[in-house]
């Protein structure tokens, strides 16, 4: 089965082995069943749903908001008369527009008559939008979480596929060991036949020793075959097969037929910017830089509005006047500054001015230390990227050498397989004509089968190596 760079489609088809026959199963069917039964892959899918929900929550929390409030409600009695007072208000905020807020509120008193004072309408906006970067930071982190969850599914699928082929490799290595054990058996049988031909008595030590070697070989092979069949049944269960509808021998034939030669992937087959360690380091540098820029040590906010019956702007007759209001607040270098004015509509009323200032030396000191800390963080991130680039070059060289080793191993195996295939053909010719014993022929046949398995094992090593290489890079999607 040819490995594709873009191997995984995460909308897996519904897979049911119960309606399939052994003849209809392909290696891809086994892989699909394996992925369908991977619990970690299912958990990753749930994590993606949670990340998408968290992103929706973030959009709500950072989007248009409206708050209705009753304010503090008070009920008391004076001379037997009940008095109810409250200061209800409503506030609508649009963070994306410089934290624009529209605010309406009033003071209301209800007793024998209803009295409304200080009813106001105002608009508030950041003249310097110091929260813009923070909003952008929150949005990017939220989207990144969804992105990471999707990548996690891909990573789990890649890891699961590697485990699938690693388990097949383990089964084939058992077959390879059994083939080696059979070679020992045939060699010991040949020696045993020579003992018999030399006329040794059955009670002699030479005869008994040779016979015990053959018996031990048979027992060892039988034990290994039972263990192999047990592991194969477990493999089928992991693929979703509740019943053993295919023998290991048929599965082995399937493996040899479907696993073919393919390209050995190296770093040259992927974009450098998709290297996971590098992409993550660059992302961290970008998001941390945005976080540092969002940490402003200054602000400037403006507020304008209209107040009905403003008790701060009373006329000479003592009545509260409507007023136009404006206020500016600022913070910088540890200082908080504010200035405001209320201009009465009633010409007999005097305007009201407000001002305020506060200063915290420690705040200024902390701001300076934070700036130094930011510079150190920047240097640390740059060093991290340099380290990743160094690791990239080392890993690239290592993968290139691994590819060369796999090619060399395959070349050697193919040469040996060609030799043992010819030897098996010659030995069969001699055996059919009674020139050699059955054990001698079976030994040659087993050597051929052993190198067929070795070739398949090498192809599996290539697949697993490709899985490892793919896992180091993010896909373009």
List the helices and strands and how they pair.
Elements lengths: L26 H10 L2 H23 L3 E5 L4 E5 L2 E6 L2 E6 L5 E11 L3 E15 L3 H66 L7 H34 L9 H11 L17 H19 L3 E17 L5 E13 L2 E10 L7 E8 L1 H72 L5 H33 L7
Antiparallel strand pairs: 1-4, 2-3, 3-5, 4-5, 5-6, 6-7, 7-8, 8-9, 9-10
Describe this structure in words.
- By secondary structure, the chain is an alpha+beta fold.
- It has eight helices and ten strands.
- Strands 1, 2, 3, 4, 5, 6, 7, 8, 9 and 10 form a ten-stranded antiparallel β-sheet that branches.
- A hairpin with a 3-residue loop joins strand 5 and strand 6 (114-128).
- Helix 3 runs antiparallel to helix 4 (205-238).
Q: In a nutshell, what does this entry contain?
A:
The protein has 477 residues and is of the alpha+beta class. It has eight helices and ten strands.
- The count of helical stretches stands at 8
Radius of gyration: 40 Å
Question: pLDDT below 50 for ≥5 consecutive residues: which ranges?
Answer: 1-22
Helix/strand class: alpha+beta
Termini separation: 23 Å
Largest sheet: 10 strands, antiparallel
Q: How large a portion of the residues is in β-strands, by DSSP E? A: 15-25%
- Identify the overall geometry: elongated
Q: Quick one: how many beta strands?
A: 10
Compressed to H and E, one letter per element, the order equals: HHEEEEEEHHHHEEEEHH
Q: Overall mean pLDDT score? A: 83
């Amino acid at each position: 089965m040819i490995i594709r760079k873009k191997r995984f489609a995460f909308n897996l088809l519904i897979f049911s082995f119960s309606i399939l026959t052994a003849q209809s199963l392909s290696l891809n069917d086994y892989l699909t069943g394996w992925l369908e039964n991977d619990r970690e892959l299912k958990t990753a899918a749930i994590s993606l749903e949670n990340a998408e929900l968290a992103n929706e929550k973030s959009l709500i929390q950072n989007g248009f908001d409206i708050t209705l409030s009753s304010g503090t409600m008070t009920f008391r009695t004076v001379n037997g008369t009940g008095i109810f007072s409250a200061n209800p208000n409503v506030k609508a905020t649009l963070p994306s527009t410089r934290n624009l807020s529209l605010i309406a509120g009033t003071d209301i008193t209800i007793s024998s008559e209803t009295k409304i004072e200080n009813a106001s309408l105002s608009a508030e906006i950041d003249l310097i939008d110091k929260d813009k970067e923070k909003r952008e930071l929150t949005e990017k982190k939220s989207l990144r979480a969804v992105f990471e969850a999707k990548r996690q599914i891909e990573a789990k699928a890649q890891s699961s596929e590697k485990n699938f082929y690693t388990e097949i490799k383990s089964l084939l290595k058992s077959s390879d060991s059994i083939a080696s054990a059979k070679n020992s058996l045939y060699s010991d049988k040949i020696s045993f036949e020579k003992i018999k031909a030399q006329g040794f008595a059955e009670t002699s030590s030479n005869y008994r020793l040779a016979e015990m070697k053959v018996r031990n070989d048979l027992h060892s092979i039988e034990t290994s075959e039972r263990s192999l069949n047990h592991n194969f049944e477990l493999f089928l269960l992991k693929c979703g097969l509740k019943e053993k509808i295919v023998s290991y021998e048929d599965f082995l034939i399937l493996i040899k037929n479907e696993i073919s030669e393919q390209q050995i992937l190296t770093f040259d087959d992927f974009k450098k910017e998709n290297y996971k360690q590098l992409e993550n380091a660059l992302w961290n540098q970008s998001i941390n830089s945005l976080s540092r820029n969002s940490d402003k040590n200054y602000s400037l906010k403006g507020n304008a509005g209209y107040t009905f019956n403003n008790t701060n702007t009373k006329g000479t007759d003592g009545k509260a006047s409507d007023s136009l209001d404006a206020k500016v607040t600022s913070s910088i270098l540890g200082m908080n500054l504010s200035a405001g004015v209320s201009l009465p509509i009633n010409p007999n009323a005097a305007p009201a001015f407000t001002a305020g200032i506060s200063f915290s030396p420690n705040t200024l000191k902390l701001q300076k230390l934070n700036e130094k800390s930011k510079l150190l963080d920047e240097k640390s991130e740059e060093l991290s990227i340099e380290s990743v680039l160094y690791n990239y070059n080392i890993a690239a060289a290592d993968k290139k050498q691994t590819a060369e080793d796999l090619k060399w191993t395959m070349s050697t195996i193919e040469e040996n397989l060609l030799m043992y295939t010819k030897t098996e053909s010659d030995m069969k010719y001699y055996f059919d004509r009674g020139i050699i014993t059955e054990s001698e022929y079976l030994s040659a046949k087993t050597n051929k089968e052993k190198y067929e398995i070795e070739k398949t094992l090498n192809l599996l090593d290539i697949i697993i190596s490709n899985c490892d290489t793919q896992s180091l890079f993010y896909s373009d999607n």
